[in-house]
Amino acid sequence: MASLPRRVKSLGVLACPAMQATSRISLEEKVLVITGASRGIGEAIALAATKAGAKVVLASRKQPGLDEVAAKVKEAGGHAAAFACHMGKPDEVEKLFAAAIERFGRVDALINNAATNPYFGPMMDTPLSALDKTLEVNVKGYFIAARELVKHLRSRKAESGAIVNIASVAGMRAAPMQGAYGMSKAAVISMTQTLAMELGSSNIRVNAVAPGLVETRFAAAIVNNDMLRKHVTDRTPLDRHAQPDEIAGAAIFLASDAASFVTGHTLVVDGGLTTS
pTM for the full model? Predict the structure, then answer.
């Protein structure tokens, strides 16, 4: 290694933890809670985290889908635990983290991915019941899970921790026909920035990923409609929509020590859509 300038040595940079952080994207020896993990982006993140060396705790509303993903993780040589949980219910989220800690001894990072979008249509016609459900899962659920992780990290005096919130480009610009969903994702981005400011002194990093259109059951109303899909892909420089595993890499990076100096950031993964 080339010698460092005298001034850098005098400032003690060689002893700085950030200088010792690996550039390799690895989650070895880490335990991740991944919500909305029964399919789509959540499933892709769980499998990518497994390949990166993590033990994963899978959460979603329905147990059968979680069990299928857990089986895939184990087939890949990983370690998984699956727990059905409604992320908008504080008591269920508390039990989720308690179960995760009992199973693996600790939790190091959280991937907030669970989301819902029960209404597709003009924003002013959104039923209040659909608005309530959207905010309960997409915003309140993220907040409750983040609070549980932070409480755990602080109680065990962890050296560091990471929260990755899956947002959306719908939260960064107008979201016609998906107004309530876009509103919730804008709140997620705001939450990410505020928590990053407040938790930085505890060395807990908080970032977000904002996907564009991804081929999942969640986005089927757009992906399976030729006119709507083309409306998006025609404005996307890469001229296509994404697959779930193309979003997973961004989440794994932000959860890993390779992103040790990244916090409060929203990483856009949209094929260039927001540049148009």
Answer: 0.89
